[in-house]
Design brief:
This protein folds into 2 domains: 92 residues, TATA-Binding Protein, CATH 3.30.310.10; 73 residues, TATA-Binding Protein. Helix content is 28%, strand content 31%. The chain is built from 4 helices and 9 strands; from the N terminus they run βαβββαβαββββα. The longest helix is centred in the last third of the chain and has 18 residues. The two termini are 19 Å apart.
């Protein structure tokens, strides 16, 4: 099974400040500033959730690719421009998009005995408390990533900032599993 991106978190900045209350009213989006400082804007296609803050910063969650991130950011930017919240002084710039976290899934393709695995991996990089969480937590240094390994052989890898680093982390995990199992 190839690695699959299941969540990508990224951010950008549209401007230096926005009146989020006015934006929420105009876009007819519910905004409860007492509960959370960001306005939640949902893009249907691609299915991405955007958090818009007073600072003009926008955070995307739920994307599955860099093109999904760009498309969602572009859609909200165009809507804010159309409604007069952004001007020509605030052009959309793909160079300003920064990926902060990727979550991928991969599969070892065979069951894993987590009790034996915890004894085989480096102690200082491994956590396994089956009463608390059913997966083994393994930290990789290069690239920096956190891997969740389940007894089914399925794995979740998080903490990388690019698809290339995510793939490298998955390869490092598979190499480590192959060497000890």
């Amino acid at each position: 099974m190839p690695n699959e991106i299941v969540n990508m978190v990224a951010s950008t900045r549209y401007c230096t400040s926005l009146d989020i209350n006015d934006v929420a009213d105009t876009l007819q989006v519910e905004y409860e500033q007492e509960q959370f400082p960001g306005m939640v804007y949902r893009v249907e296609t691609p299915k991405v959730c955007l958090l818009l803050f007073r600072s003009g910063k926008v955070v995307a969650t739920g994307a599955r690719s860099e093109s999904d991130v760009e498309s969602a950011f572009r859609q909200l930017h165009e809507r804010l421009t159309t409604e007069g919240f952004l001007t020509d002084a605030n052009p959309f710039d793909t160079e300003m998009i920064e990926i902060s976290n990727l979550v991928i899934t991969t599969d070892y393709e065979q069951p894993v005995d987590l009790n034996n695995l915890v004894l085989s991996l480096p102690f200082e990089k491994t956590e396994y408390e089956p009463e608390q969480f059913p997966g083994l937590i393994y930290r990789i240094d290069a690239p920096s990533a956190v891997c969740l390994v389940f007894s089914s052989g399925k794995c979740v890898i998080t903490g990388t900032k690019s698809p290339e680093d995510a793939d490298a982390a998955a390869d490092a995990l598979m190499d480590e599993l192959n060497s000890v199992l």
